[in-house]
Amino acid sequence: MQANIFIQTSDIGHEEWLSYRRLGCGGSDAAAIAGVNPWKSPISVYFEKIGEAPEIEENERMYWGNVLEDVVAKEFAKRTGFKVQRRNAMYQHKEHEFMLANVDRVYIKDGHVAGILECKTTNEYSKDQWEDDKIPNHYYLQVQHYLAVTGFQEAYIAALIGGNKFVYKKINRDEELIEYLIKIEADFWKMVQDKTPPAMDGSSDADNILSYLYPESEPEKEIHLDTLEDKLKDLERIKADIKELDKQKKEIEQTIKNEMEDAEIAHIGERKVTWKTVISNRIDSKKLKKEKPEIYEQYCKESKSRRFQIK
């Protein structure tokens, strides 16, 4: 392994580990910076690095991912015959110091440490992303980032899918992709150092960050943003286009429904269209408030958000 040890992680707490993560770009950050992480955007990573992002609470998916990591590693060792070792350290690229790596494990082949083992758990709905030789793009970039930092020529990624399917796949070092990652991470890290956030990208993650940073408006406060006049015109044009496309969408749906009449299923070429009866129960809040105001007040929960309008 060619990387420097940035910090030993065996004796530090979670909060301290997070503070070290903010000092550079890690493997899970790489895919977000490249725009292929399904859960995180570049803007979110930026605010994490400058210490202004909301704290992420561990959810069930994250919890079981951590619990089952050791199970995945042991199964990989069993199926390959390789010895697997934990590496309780965060590594740093020898040349590009902003690149960090907190690898799950390494594996030993022919008597020496041969590469990185990355362990994943995922749900049944993701199985198509693992078929044949496929590896989800965000995981592939994560592993290439680790190869860049550590200097290894190969890695394996092992995954437990839906709790009942195990796969493992070899990933070879891709120098062209690594050069690309180094460039975009260097550009991103300069933004962090200069406190210049990346552009908004339309993701729900960016929405969440904005809601966290600016949860309430200051009453009567006004500003002028004349430099965004062209952006506003673009927005109005796009909204008009969406309205027209939505009208066309509804016309086509109505045409199909009219032909289906009372049929629940229609076959159109190789596709199947369903128009099913769905029964749902909802609370009539207006009636409840009128007839049982004390119960309504007891269970009514106030929510607060900011409404964006153009006049």
From TrEMBL:
Coiled-coil regions, chain positions? 225-262
Domain of life, per the record?
Bacteria
Recorded GO molecular functions are: endonuclease activity; hydrolase activity
Q: Where is the YqaJ viral recombinase domain?
A: 16-153
For the keyword Hydrolase, the answer is yes
Keywords from the named record: Coiled coil, Endonuclease, Hydrolase, Nuclease
The cross-references to Pfam families, in alphabetical order and at most eight, read: YqaJ (PF09588)
The UniProt entry, under InterPro entries, shows: Lambda-type_endonuclease, NF-kappa-B_Signaling_Reg, PDDEXK-like_dom_sf, Restrct_endonuc-II-like, YqaJ_viral_recombinase
Q: What is this protein called?
A: Putative phage-type endonuclease
What organism is recorded for this protein?
Garciella nitratireducens DSM 15102
